[in-house]
Amino acid sequence: MRKRIKYYNILVASFFIITLSGCATPAGKAFETNESQVKLRSIQTRAFDTTDKKKMMQTIISTMQDLDFVIDKADLTLGSVTGSKFLGQAVVTMTVTVRARGEKQLLVRANAQYGISSVEDPGTYQDFFTALEKSIFLTAQQVD
Amino acid sequence: MKKVSGSLKFLAAILLSLGVIGCASTPKGFLKPSEGYLEKRQLQIRQYDTTNEEQIISAVAGVLQDLSFTLDESETELGLVVASKKADATSKGQIAGAVFLDVLAAFGGSYSNNAARCDKSQVIKASVIVKPSLEGKKTMVRVTFQRIVWNMSNQISRVETITDPQIYQRFYDGLSKAIFLEAQQV
């Protein structure tokens, strides 16, 4: 019987180790990403054949509103829009930035966060750019 | 001895479930437009027969103040105004129900504290966008509301987007009045 208790103690201890270490978050972890910097950029960025930054930003805002986001901040000079939406009990925040690419194009980059994890799934960003394409009547081009 | 191993098993199960919940994964498809988004637009958007965006945006700021919101953020070039307001969220019915359940539990010999989970306060956030309409002859206003609700033990109990048409209607009634009043320089 003694042996059995010991065995359970070890079991409980190992559960503690697994549960606590599995989600350990030292400060450095805040800067970790699963994808490489280059790949992440290509997932999150598209180019559009327009130079009208203001109109692009207004379209981004209305697309985000269609997706149930509430706009928290926007800045025309920096070209950034930040919004948040509630999904059940989780909060999704997203920042979209617009900047010029050469003289004929605009680069749009979206950056989403779900709860405490950053979104790195290509399909999720593709959904956003598909919705944006429809509102602005322009094709989103993949950037290498 | 049987009892000890049973409770240990129970403890292990709790620890395991904690570990699994802690690392919950991100769902997919949350950046796709939902089916009812066109109806939502109708609820959230109004158009005004003017091209004077500045007039509309200052009326928006005015009506938000009328509704006792404070302005948090604005970018006039993009026509954005963000405002928020703290408000009471207690409902007598909810508290009465919770207290009744607690008393029932006490009679049954167990302890429960449903009253602590009742709504206490809320923050309502409004985000307004003013921009020219597609053909450029009118000005479009779109407002969206969110709210965060805290319970009696000061924990966030609910977060939600407000979809109640009455709240939107009240905002736009106020806006129409504000545009009129400001045109009359009141």
Could you explain the architecture of this structure?
With 144 residues, chain A is of the alpha+beta class. Chain A has one domain: TATA-Binding Protein (2-Layer Sandwich). Chain A has helices at 2-22, 37-44, 53-66, 122-136; strands spanning 45-48, 70-75, 80-87, 90-101, 105-114, 117-118, 141-142. In chain A, α3 (53-66) crosses α4 (122-136). The longest helix of chain A is centred in the N-terminal third of the chain and has 21 residues, at 2-22. With 186 residues, chain B is an alpha+beta fold. Helices cover 42% and strands 28% of the residues of chain B. Chain B has helices at 2-22, 37-44, 53-66, 92-107, 165-183; strands at 45-48, 70-75, 80-88, 119-132, 139-151, 156-161. In chain B, strands 1, 2, 3, 4, 5 and 6 form a 6-stranded antiparallel beta sheet that branches.
Span between N and C termini of chain A? 65 Å
Structural class of chain A: alpha+beta
Would you count the extended β strands of chain A for me?
7
What would you report as the Rg of chain B, rounded to the nearest angstrom?
24 Å
Unreliable stretches of chain A (pLDDT < 50, length at least 5) are none
How would a crystallographer describe the biggest sheet of chain B? 6 strands, antiparallel
Number of H/I helices of chain B = 5
Mean pLDDT reading of chain A? 86
Radius of gyration of chain A: 21 Å
Question: What's the CATH first level of chain A?
Answer: Alpha Beta
What is the name of the CATH superfamily of chain A?
Kinase associated domain 1, KA1
Q: Sketch the major β-sheet of chain A.
A: 7 strands, antiparallel
Average pLDDT reading of chain B = 84
Order of helix and strand elements from N to C terminus of chain B = HHEHEEHEEEH
- CATH topology of chain A, anyone? TATA-Binding Protein
Q: Helical content of chain B, roughly?
A: 40-55%
